[in-house]
Amino acid sequence: MAASWRPRHPFPPTAMTIALDVPTALIPIDVQRAFDMAASSNPAMEPNGLRLLAAWRRASQSAELPLIHVRHDSVQPGSPFRPGQPGHPLRPGFEPRGDEPLVTKSVNAAFIGTDLDLRLRRLGVQQVVLFGMTTDMCVSTSARVASNLGYRTIVVGDAAACFDLVDADGTRVPAREIHRAHLATLHAEFGTVVDTEAVLAALGQRD
Q: Mean pLDDT throughout 122-135?
């Protein structure tokens, strides 16, 4: 009798250690002004994301640690993420610095219709660390595609956030439930979910 399928991580822990033992890139996704962070599942997303950026930039001074920013440039009329709209720019502190590249997309996955995969391949990147907005949409979709493309994929759960949704029955689903469920799904099949402290600890070990 064939063995039944089980998730890789049926009971994911809330925090894990990670290793930066292969070429790794940090990819912040869609941290843009249109999002109402106070209404999100995780208002701590911004401070945690800023800590990740600061630590990654410090560590990259002595190691090859690429940082590639992703921004959503909507093609939908009236979208707050459409170029030229007040909500389109990246939030303060999340803008690229110096020669840090910016990849722009118009769909949920950062790899679709962009040169992100090509950039990572040229840099020899084998592992990606993702955070940003939103947990259930562009972060989740990008993580799934990254995993399918063969990258070792890490999602920083406490540096991502999402919002309440209404399901097909008209019932409001709280953002915290959506956030938790998506992180559990990603951790079960598509990569590893960690917290900010785990990434900072891994970076500190490279100093």
A: 98
